[in-house]
Amino acid sequence: MKRTLYIPAALLVATSAIIVLVSFRQADNTAEAPLCHVPAADPDLMIADAKPEPKGCVFKTVYEGEGLDPSFALVTPQNVVRAEQRGLDWLVKAQANDGGFGSGTHARQDIIDPHAVSTDPATTAMVGMALLRMGSTLDKGNYAQQLKKAAEYLLVQVEQSPKGAVNVTQLQGTQIQSKLGANIDVALTAQFLSNLMAKIGEGHGMYLRSKRALNTCVSMIQRSQQADGSVQGDGWAGVLQSSFAASALESAKNQGAEVDDEALDLARNYQKANFDVSSGSVATERAAGVTLYAVSGSTRNSAVEARELNEIVVQAKKEGKVAENAPMNVATLEKAGVSKDKAEKLNTAYQVYEAAKQQAQDERVTSGFGNNGGEEFLSFLQTGESLVIAKDNSWKNWYGQTTGKLVDIQNQDGSWNGHHCITSPVFCTATSLLILSVNNDIEHLLEQGAVKYRN
After folding, report:
1. Do 235 and 315 contact (CB within 8 A), yes or no?
2. What domains are there in the chain, each with its CATH number?
3. 138, 147 in Cβ contact below 8 A?
4. Are the CB atoms for 137 and 389 separated by under 8 Å?
5. Average pLDDT of 43-48?
6. Is the pLDDT of residue 13 over 50?
7. Dihedrals phi, psi of 76, to nearest 5 degrees
8. What is the per-residue pLDDT for 444?
9. Sign of the torsion angle spanned by Cα atoms 382, 422, 252, 140
10. Rounded Cα–Cα distance for residues 275 and 13 (Å)
């Protein structure tokens, strides 16, 4: 096509896009009309002769290069949208003057006023991730200014950390540290920075600064890693600290950070080892005796490799390398061309994922400690993200059940709070929003799990 023909074609595409966006905007005002969170189209992928996309939620990622089955995406019910907005309205008011958010100390859990406690990186990172997932960036969105202040707070915390440190703060005894681990702040900060970098892109003025800070966090996590793959400084449910550290390394690697592959494998293996596939038993010694905490970590940290196995076998079947009814096991992987060592590694992850995800969604397990504390909310979040990352359609059932519970227990003021251990309304509200709005982040989570397409 000649260059002169691109201009009117491009104008036509742009005009059509505006009309579609306006129609979605108007639909927001209808009573009980469901919402479909669709990532913005990449203009670099648009061509004049492209066929129109089918209606519905269809995602394309830079790794997959093809439309995802639209049935994988969900329509967000209006009651969930309302709960999200109420929670977000409450949450942004909790921001302190320094840009941070706080949960308070374990010793004074009776103080629930978010402005009467010190700010901490772990809580700020959770709020920052919630703001990102709810649609704000550093430059646009209803809460861009709040997000920018939170990001600056976290970057300064990292940049001012002493050389050789294993955490990004000198604070001790926060609710989050006491229950998850003394070094949870760096794991959650690293996860926030990875998410931020994915949203803003390499051309943004904050990208390089964020990447430097992310590499600093990665170094801290790897320095604090113990021989078994866990992170030192266990709290009451230290398995969760180690799980978030493992997923932080995974996300950081996805963003090109300086992650040691052996450290990542060791971190994943620790989480997988907490679940015994043959017996179905779960190691809960470092999970406060609560199966939910351990099993959600096992699910989360086997999801990427489980998806890789599945995609290798599916592709091998398409190419005729293995039979259509070939099982998901080591022998099948070897026939597909995978080395024995890698086949055994992927098969272990797959078996752990398939078994652990069942327990992680069992009603007897999801009751956790008997009522909801911040640890339960975090476990629910890990399970849901695992299912999406693994491209597992069962995530839709998880979403319906979990969001229904969260909407039912939302406080009148729009917040959520825990009833044991991590009770902070700021931390619990941020985590609840991350769960409710996971549907907004489908594309990002799928890209994170697309291991076979990465260099």
Report:
1. no
2. 3-71 (no CATH), 80-264+271-296+351-453 (1.50.10.20)
3. yes
4. no
5. 31
6. no
7. -85, 120
8. 86
9. positive
10. 51
Of 452, 136, 442, 439, which Cα lies nearest the Cα of 307? 452
Question: CA 392, CA 217: separation in Å to the nearest integer?
Answer: 30
Distance of CA 219 to the CA centre of its chain: 21
Sign of CA dihedral 376, 132, 416, 428: positive
- Measured distance CA(98)–CA(355) in Å, rounded: 44
Tell me how far CA of residue 371 lies from CA of 179, 238, 382, 384, 400, in angstroms: 16, 19, 18, 19, 19
Give yes or no for residue 19 having a pLDDT over 80: no
The rounded percent of the chain whose pLDDT value lies above 90 is: 48
Q: How many helices (H) and strands (E) does the chain have?
A: 18, 0
> What is d(CA 279, CA 160) in angstroms, rounded to the nearest whole number?
47
Count of positions (residues) in the chain: 455
| Cβ atoms of 116 and 137 closer than 8 Å | no
What is the Cα–Cα distance from 126 to 431, expressed in whole angstroms?
A: 7
Count of C-beta atoms within a 10 Å radius of residue 223: 15
Radius of gyration, alpha carbons of the chain: 22
Relative orientation angle of helices 78-92 and 425-436, to the nearest 10 degrees: 150
The separation between the first and the last C-alpha atoms of the chain, rounded to the nearest angstrom, is 33
- Would residue 49 be called left, alpha or beta, if left means φ above 0 and alpha means ψ between -120 and 50 degrees? alpha
Nearest CA-CA partner of 378 in 408, 333, 350, 416: 416
Q: What is d(CA 335, CA 322) in angstroms, rounded to the nearest whole number?
A: 7
The owner of tokens 């394309």 is 60
Joined tokens for residue 23: 């129609």
Ranges 12-21, 69-78, 156-165, 179-188, most confident = 156-165
Q: State the burial class of residue 358 (Cβ atoms within 10 Å of its Cβ: 0-12, 13-18, 19+).
A: middle
304-358 tens-digit pLDDT: 888 999 999 999 999 999 999 999 999 999 999 999 999 998 988 888 888 878 7
Task: Check if the beta carbon of residue 81 is closer than 8 Å to that of residue 27.
Answer: no
Distance of CA 399 to the CA centre of its chain: 14
- Report residue 35: phi and psi, to 5°: -110, 145
